Amino acid sequence: MDLWFTEKQTKDFGITAKTKQTLHTEKTAFQQLDMIETEEWGNMLVLDGMVMTTQKDEFVYHEMVAHVPLFTHPNPKHVLVVGGGDGGVIREVLKHKSVEKATLVEIDGKVIEYSKQYLPEIAGDLDNPRVEVKVDDGFMHIANSEKDYDVIMVDSTEPVGPAVNLFSKGFYAGISKALKDDGIFVAQTDNPWFKADLIRQVYHDVKEIFPVTRLYTANIPTYPSGLWTFTMGSKIHDPLKVKEERFTDIETKYYTKELHHAAFALPKFVKDLTD
């Protein structure tokens, strides 16, 4: 008998993947956590029924969250990742030699625990000496920070459960306070096919706080619609004005210096969300 996992991305649409086995299932203090081995995508982390990452396509999301802001900032030394307990963004952050310390603040320690066990190629750098891992509330960590970070990356789930506050204007104002005077932040902001209103609201909230606000996209096949957006807020540095010499050779599978600029070229229906 074939077994399939299905994520209902809207009440009328979903994606499905043939599974080999369930590796772990648990109701944590914050959410339902499932680790599934699939035929097509390898091991898959699912939170509250939503696909968070898979072994096959994880590199797209993690590279685009990390490298776009880190190559935009001229000298990122102190980096904060809010959420991201699977460790993928941290792995990419550490590819930048200028980064002296990367702090991960993940509210659910179980995500870290089972990612290390079942997604070691993603979570393997969480024990790196340049990394500090805190099992804590990212919203409160931001609220208690002031001019501590060069770059902040919000690697949250969709705006449900413990992640709701991470899509609020007050949170973005707190991020501005937590950043240094030339700081940059980026957040994943869902997809334009099903969550256009969310993208529009976040973009305009960020624009009221940050002088430079940009929206960019990537193709992530296991995320709703496959077209994913990221919103960047920057105090000074514009990702579209990065000089050629800023780019250095790092090992990637998706991100390139050419794609750095191309990702900001938006389809019209997506660009319209920024007007």
TrEMBL record:
<keyword id="KW-0808">Transferase</keyword>
<comment type="subunit">
    <text>Homodimer or homotetramer.</text>
</comment>
<feature type="binding site">
    <location>
        <begin position="155"/>
        <end position="158"/>
    </location>
    <ligand>
        <name>spermidine</name>
    </ligand>
</feature>
<dbReference type="InterPro" id="IPR029063">
    <property type="entry name" value="SAM-dependent_MTases_sf"/>
</dbReference>
<dbReference type="InterPro" id="IPR001045">
    <property type="entry name" value="Spermi_synthase"/>
</dbReference>
<feature type="domain" description="PABS">
    <location>
        <begin position="2"/>
        <end position="235"/>
    </location>
</feature>
<comment type="pathway">
    <text>Amine and polyamine biosynthesis; spermidine biosynthesis; spermidine from putrescine: step 1/1.</text>
</comment>
<comment type="similarity">
    <text>Belongs to the spermidine/spermine synthase family.</text>
</comment>
<feature type="binding site">
    <location>
        <position position="31"/>
    </location>
    <ligand>
        <name>S-methyl-5'-thioadenosine</name>
    </ligand>
</feature>
<feature type="binding site">
    <location>
        <position position="86"/>
    </location>
    <ligand>
        <name>spermidine</name>
    </ligand>
</feature>
<protein>
    <recommendedName>
        <fullName>Polyamine aminopropyltransferase</fullName>
        <ecNumber>2.5.1.16</ecNumber>
    </recommendedName>
</protein>
<feature type="active site" description="Proton acceptor">
    <location>
        <position position="155"/>
    </location>
</feature>
<feature type="binding site">
    <location>
        <begin position="137"/>
        <end position="138"/>
    </location>
    <ligand>
        <name>S-methyl-5'-thioadenosine</name>
    </ligand>
</feature>
<dbReference type="Pfam" id="PF17284">
    <property type="entry name" value="Spermine_synt_N"/>
</dbReference>
<keyword id="KW-0620">Polyamine biosynthesis</keyword>
<comment type="function">
    <text>Catalyzes the irreversible transfer of a propylamine group from the amino donor S-adenosylmethioninamine (decarboxy-AdoMet) to putrescine (1,4-diaminobutane) to yield spermidine.</text>
</comment>
<feature type="binding site">
    <location>
        <position position="162"/>
    </location>
    <ligand>
        <name>S-methyl-5'-thioadenosine</name>
    </ligand>
</feature>
<dbReference type="InterPro" id="IPR030373">
    <property type="entry name" value="PABS_CS"/>
</dbReference>
<dbReference type="Pfam" id="PF01564">
    <property type="entry name" value="Spermine_synth"/>
</dbReference>
<feature type="binding site">
    <location>
        <position position="62"/>
    </location>
    <ligand>
        <name>spermidine</name>
    </ligand>
</feature>
<dbReference type="InterPro" id="IPR030374">
    <property type="entry name" value="PABS"/>
</dbReference>
<dbReference type="InterPro" id="IPR037163">
    <property type="entry name" value="Spermidine_synt_N_sf"/>
</dbReference>
<dbReference type="GO" id="GO:0004766">
    <property type="term" value="F:spermidine synthase activity"/>
</dbReference>
<keyword id="KW-0745">Spermidine biosynthesis</keyword>
<feature type="binding site">
    <location>
        <position position="106"/>
    </location>
    <ligand>
        <name>S-methyl-5'-thioadenosine</name>
    </ligand>
</feature>
<dbReference type="InterPro" id="IPR035246">
    <property type="entry name" value="Spermidine_synt_N"/>
</dbReference>
